[in-house]
Amino acid sequence: MTSQPAGGRLVDPFSQGKFWVEINGIAVASFTECTGLTVQTEVESFKEGGYNSGMRQLIKTTKWNNIVLKRGWTATDELWSWYLKIIEGKLETKPVSILAFPNRGVSTTDSRFSWDLEKAFPVKWTGPDFRADGNGIAVEALELAHSGWRINKAVR
């Protein structure tokens, strides 16, 4: 489904399921979920003398939410090893990019947008839940703090 804005140019919305994550420049295709792409700026309202038609707004701080990446648990320990360094007090930031793809397919040479996290590092790792009566996929999650992101259009 495409929509047409007032300018007449067709816009193809992205499927939320077509994304890729790169950590330290290496494509990691096994992530099944990415949440937390949220940024919010706090404001403070104040009444200014002589301005009687309302309140003024002052910009205070901007908060970048942590990003949570989930994937089916595998035998590799790359994410746990990265977090283990944090536990040991060794801050190791890595560039992380979340790439969005058009609906026609997922190819690392055809992304349209990327969110490039600045100075990302893990702050929480969640291992899989095991249930004797369960038959679902075991999932691990990695929560990343960062210093903000840049959105790049038509990156590849």
Write the layout of secondary structure elements.
Layout: E1 19-23, E2 26-28, E3 31-35, E4 39-46, E5 56-64, E6 67-72, H1 78-87, E7 94-100, E8 113-126, E9 139-145, E10 149-153
Antiparallel strand pairs: 1-2, 1-7, 3-6, 4-5, 6-9, 7-8, 8-9, 8-10
Gross morphology is elongated
Reported for the largest beta sheet, the result is:
8 strands, antiparallel
Oligomer: single chain
What share of residues are in beta strands? 35-45%
What integer value in Å does the Rg equal? 20 Å
**Could you say what the CATH architecture of the domain at 31-37 and 64-153 is?**
Roll
Please identify the structural class as seen in this structure.
Answer: mainly beta
Q: And the CATH topology of the domain at 31-37 and 64-153?
A: Pnp Oxidase, Chain A
The helix content is under 10%
Distance between the termini: 23 Å
Description:
By secondary structure, this protein is mainly β. The chain has a domain of 97 residues: Hcp1-like (Pnp Oxidase, Chain A, Roll). It is built from 1 helix and 10 strands; from the N terminus they run ββββββαββββ. Strands 1, 2, 3, 6, 7, 8, 9 and 10 form an 8-stranded antiparallel sheet that branches. It is elongated. The chain starts with 18 loop residues before the first strand and ends with a strand. About 4% of the residues have low confidence.
